[in-house]
Structure formats: C-alpha cells, structure tokens
C-alpha cells in the first residue's frame, strides 16, 4: 500500500516501514563514524528500546565499538492488514535485522514493562542469552499510564503545573497552527499519579527484581533519562507534575547507587537536552521552545539529536574511566549545551516575539516538523513515497 502521514494534533497515527528502517540505518552510520565507546558494556537491557533515547542508546552500544548484545523491551502496535504498525514496532524489527546481520544478540520483548510478567520474561531472557547477568540497564520509558497491580486500576499521568495555572502555546503538527491554552494546576491526586507513572518506583522495582534473581553482574550500571530545562520550560516542566516525578527519579538513583555499590556498580539519572520525540511533542507548551532552541543551537553548531546525545554520554561520561563525572546533585549532565547562558538568552528573546503568525519564521519549525515526520518514517529523500511500501 501507499503510505502517507496521518497525523492528528501532535500524534502520528501511522508510520512508514522503509522510512523507519532508514532512520535506524542513519543512526547506525552515525555511530560507526563516531568516537568509539571504549570499555563499554557487553550485555545491555533497555527498557523503552523502540524510540527516542532508548533506541539511540541501543544502536550506539550495538553498532559502536563495544558491540553490545541487547535485550529491548517496548510497548508498540504491530501492523495489521488494514493498518500500519507504530514507528517503534518497525524500529524494533529493523534494529534486530541489522544487529543480527552483524552478529549481535538482539532480543525484542513486546509488552508492558510495568508488569510482573514482562519482568519475569526479561529475567528468563537474561538467563538464556546473557549467561544470567546484565552489565547495563537503561530505563527509558515514557508512558502516560501504569497499571496498579493491587487494585487492577491505572495511574494516569497529567502534564500540568503545580500550584498555579500556566498559559502557553502548542503547535499542532497536523495543521501547522499555533494554539494558546491555559492549563489549570494539578490536583494533589494528579501529581501523585504522575509520580507513580514517571517517577523512580518502577525503575527501582526493575533493579530489585534483577538483584533478587542474581542477574546483576560485577560492575553493573543503570541509568534513567531525565529533563530539567531552563526558566522557559520550568513552569510546565520542572515546577509541574513531570518535574516532581523527575525529582523522585533523581532520588531513586541515589538509593539504587547504594544497592549497586554491592556489585561495584552505580546508578545515575542522566539529564538530557530537549528533543523532538513521540513523548516530548505531547507536552503542552514545549513545541515553541523546541522551535526556538533548534534555531539557536543549529546556528551555533551545537544542536545534537538523540543519537549524538547518547554517543557523547557513553564516550565522555559513562564509559570514559573509573569515575563517572556528575554535578553537585550526582546527576550526569548532557544538557550543558542547551543550558548555555547565551543560548537561553537568545531563545528567550525569540520566544518573547513568537506568535501564531511568525513562529515558523522566527524558530526552526521546519526542522522540528521534519524531525517529527522522520521519527515516523516520513520525509526521507532516499524513499520514494509515491510507491507502495514493500516491507518484508
Ligand atoms: P519515546 O516516546 O521516544 O520512547 C519511549 C519508549 O518507552 C518507547 O520505546 C516505548 O515503546 C516505551 N514504552 C512506553 N510505555 C511502555 C510500557 N508500558 N512498557 C514498555 N515500554 C514502554 O520517549 P523519549 O523522549 O525517548 O523518552 C525516554 C525518556 O527520556 C523519558 O524518561 C523522558 O522523560 C526522557 N527525556 C526525554 C527528553 C526529550 O526531549 N525527548 C529530554 C530529556 C529526557
């Protein structure tokens, strides 16, 4: 069938298989010509492996010098006769195809990472394919819901400010239009539920399960991705429900660090740059900031994509010697180029002038939109989209 992008608001309803393969291949190419990851982990578990930071990490480790074997867990939609799969489904498929071609072990586990049964399946896979132990666990889930095993109900995250309402704009990627919205403050219950979904509890449950099943190797590390941002994003992010969940994740990294010290390992929250991903465009008010940020960082030559961010993480932070460089709160920072004072000042002045009529001109909306389309396999010049997809 011929596949054209079907976007509703900021959500892609379909994906292009060959385009997703192209996206995976371009990331593989990037890591092959980058600085090698020396002394990298051999056996890696990635939770949230099919897109964004998780997929980029999997590619950097498998195709970079460490030639890691990987087990990836993701929650994606498979294709049917009527409908394409989700981009993440194709990413998993093509990652595995190319990793196996190069002799890597690449196990995909599809299902809800919050569930007990997926934790059990992963432990079984570690037994079967990794001789029982894992050297690095990457926690990269971005989810809106988490089942509560005790009640059979769900915690649902709410992306809202705390304490006061916030007014901001979002850019609808289907119609290229700017919409103002006012978000009311979260209730205590909404903030609590968001922390349950995006905080550190499930990360800790994973590491506890792996410790209990004796699946942690000597020197094993674990990381989870976080975001802090600047004064321009604080009202909706750091000072809101998501920020509260991320602070919880940072605190969890300290308790996990103590647990992994028993294995001469460590746990770190890793603070990344704001980037276009399936999860981030969903955050109300973030797209104007992303368009301004992309414009300024591209002009400065400091813009990085997910694969560039994680490549820098592994080569200059996590596997660059016996000490992992961290800030005063024991966080790994790869958001330094975003938070550069001059960058933020210029972003601020663009945002002050940005409105419904000029956002595409003042910011790099074209770049943001292209990255969003490419996440879903569209807008690659190598693909002839007028031809039917012949995905194998
Ligand atoms: P993404 O939407 O690209 O990827 C999320 C991954 O989680 C996908 O592989 C998806 O299949 C998986 N997933 C979601 N729910 C699941 C479930 N119940 N069971 C199994 N897998 C599930 O998201 P992105 O942006 O890469 O986010 C990953 C982490 O990075 C998040 O913690 C996010 O807060 C953080 N981060 C993102 C930034 C950004 O600008 N995109 C910046 C800094 C941190």
Q: Describe it for me?
A:
- This protein has 12 helices and 13 strands.
- By secondary structure, it is of the alpha/beta class.
- It has a single domain, classed as Rossmann fold.
- The strands form 4 sheets. It has a 7-stranded parallel beta sheet with strand order 5-4-3-6-11-12-13, with helices on both faces. Strands 1-2 form a two-stranded antiparallel ribbon. A two-stranded antiparallel sheet has the order 7-8.
- Helix 5 packs across helix 7 (241-261).
- The protein is globular, with a radius of gyration of 20 Å.
- The site of 1,4-dihydronicotinamide adenine dinucleotide has 29 residues, from helix 2, strand 4 and strand 11.
Briefly summarize what is shown:
With 392 residues, the protein is of the alpha/beta class. It has helices at residues 17-32, 52-63, 87-101, 116-129, 188-198, 201-212, 241-261, 286-300, 306-318, 341-353, 359-362, 365-375; strands at residues 7-8, 11-12, 43-47, 69-74, 106-110, 134-139, 145-147, 154-156, 166-172, 177-183, 216-226, 266-271, 332-333.
Q: How many strand elements?
A: 13
* Gross geometry: globular
Report the sheet with the most strands, covering strand number, pairing sense and barrel closure. 7 strands, parallel
List the helices and strands in order: EEHEHEHEHEEEEEHHEHEHHEHHH
CATH architecture: 3-Layer(aba) Sandwich
CATH superfamily: NAD(P)-binding Rossmann-like Domain
Distance between the termini: 13 Å
* Count of discrete alpha- or pi-helical segments spanning 4 or more residues: 12
Output the CATH topology: Rossmann fold
- Residue runs with pLDDT of under 50 for 5 or more positions: none
Percent of residues in beta strands: 15-25%
Counting helices, strands and paired strands, the structural category is alpha/beta
Number of folding domains? 1
**Widest β-sheet, arrangement of strands:** 5-4-3-6-11-12-13
| Nearest-integer average pLDDT | 97
